[in-house]
Design goal:
Elements lengths: L2 E12 L2 E12 L3 E5 L6 H8 L7 E6 L2 E2 L7 H6 L1 E4 L11 H11 L5 H14 L15 H14 L4 E5 L7 H16 L3 E5 L3 H7 L2 E6 L2 E6 L1 H6 L4 H11 L1
Parallel strand pairs: 3-8, 3-9, 6-7, 7-8
Antiparallel strand pairs: 1-2, 1-4, 4-5, 9-10
Helix pairs in contact: 3-4, 3-5, 4-5, 5-6
Bound molecules: adenosine-5'-triphosphate (ATP) and magnesium ion.
Length: about 240
C-alpha cells in the first residue's frame, strides 16, 4: 500500500515539556485513521505538527516519499495538500457561506473566482449546505458551520483531511449530521486522519485506531482489536474510563 504521510521519530517540546515522544506512524492512501486518547495526551499537537502549524522539535515528516522538513522542500505547497477541520470551525463570520469556501482557493490556489465558486458549490453540495450559499456564517447552527468548514477544506482538493475533534464544540443534537458527512467522505475513499472522542464513530468508520497517551502511541490496530481486545493495560484503562 502507498503511504501518503509517514512520521518518523517525531518529537515536540514546549520548553522543557516533551509533548510528543518519538512518534512513528503512517497514513496510507484511502485510509481512515482515528486517533483517540485522554486530554493532554498530544493528539492536537500531533496534527498541528503534521500540517506544520507547529514546528516539530525532531524527527521526519515524509509526504509522498519526500522529506518535507528537508531544506529543499516547498512547505507552502505541502500545506495546501492537507485539509484541516478544527473544533472551532474558524469561519469568517461576516462572510457568506460561498465566500468562506472561495477565499482560500483564490488566494492560495490562484483559481479564478468563477472556477472557485463552481468547486465550492460542488463541495457544499457534498456536505448538504448548497442551499445556504448566501447565508452569513454567523447565522448558521454549529453543525451547519462545521459542514461548511468541511466543504471549505474539501474545496482545496487536499490529499489528506485532518480533523481535530470536529464535533466536540457542537450541541449533542448536531453531532450526528457532521458525523454522517464524515462517514460519507470516508466511504468515498478520502484519506482521513481524525482525532475524536466519538468512540462509536471510530469503531464503525476507522480502518485503524491509534491510542495515544502522554505523548506516545501506546497501541494501534483495527478497531476490533483496539476496542474488543486491547493488548495494553493503558488502553484497557482508557477505554474503561471513556466507554463507561
Ligand atoms: N502552544 C503550547 N505551548 C505550551 N504547551 C502546549 C502548547 N500546546 C499544547 N501544549 C501542551 O501539550 C500537551 C498536549 O496538548 P494537546 O493539545 O496536544 O493534547 P490533546 O491530546 O489534543 O488534548 P485534548 O483532548 O484536551 O484536546 C498539553 O499538556 C498541553 O498543555
Ligand atoms: Mg486536542
Amino acid at each position: 500500500m502507498e503511504k501518503v504521510i509517514e512520521i518518523q521519530h517525531l518529537s515536540k517540546s514546549f520548553g522543557t515539556h516533551e509533548v510528543l515522544k518519538d512518534i512513528d506512524f503512517s497514513v496510507q492512501k484511502g485510509e481512515v485513521v482515528c486517533v483517540i486518547g485522554s486530554s493532554g495526551s498530544g493528539k492536537s499537537t500531533l496534527l498541528r505538527c503534521i500540517n506544520l502549524l507547529e514546528k516539530p522539535s525532531g524527527g521526519k515528516i515524509i509526504y509522498n516519499g519526500e522529506d518535507i522538513l528537508g531544506d529543499r522542500h516547498d512547505i507552502h505547497a505541502y500545506r495546501t495538500k492537507l485539509g484541516m477541520v478544527f473544533q472551532q470551525f474558524n469561519l469568517f463570520n461576516n462572510h457568506n457561506v460561498l465566500n468562506n469556501c472561495v477565499v482560500g482557493q483564490v488566494k492560495v490556489m490562484k483559481r479564478r473566482k468563477e472556477e472557485a465558486e463552481k468547486v465550492a458549490i460542488k463541495y457544499l453540495n457534498v456536505v448538504g449546505m448548497d442551499q445556504y450559499v448566501n447565508a452569513k456564517a454567523q447565522q448558521l447552527s454549529g453543525g451547519q458551520k462545521q459542514r461548511v468548514a468541511i466543504a471549505r477544506a474539501l474545496s482545496m482538493e487536499p490529499d489528506v483531511m485532518l480533523f481535530d475533534e470536529p464535533t466536540s464544540a457542537l450541541d449533542p443534537e448536531m453531532v450526528g449530521e457532521v458525523l454522517k458527512v464524515m462517514k460519507d467522505l470516508a466511504k468515498s475513499g478520502l484519506t482521513m486522519l481524525i482525532v475524536t472522542h466519538e468512540m462509536e464513530f471510530a469503531k464503525e468508520v476507522a480502518d485503524r485506531v491509534v491510542f495515544m497517551d502522554k505523548g506516545v502511541i501506546v497501541e494501534e490496530g483495527p478497531p476490533e482489536q483496539i476496542f474488543n481486545q486491547p493488548q495494553k493495560e493503558r488502553t484497557r484503562e482508557f477505554l474503561k474510563r471513556t466507554l463507561r
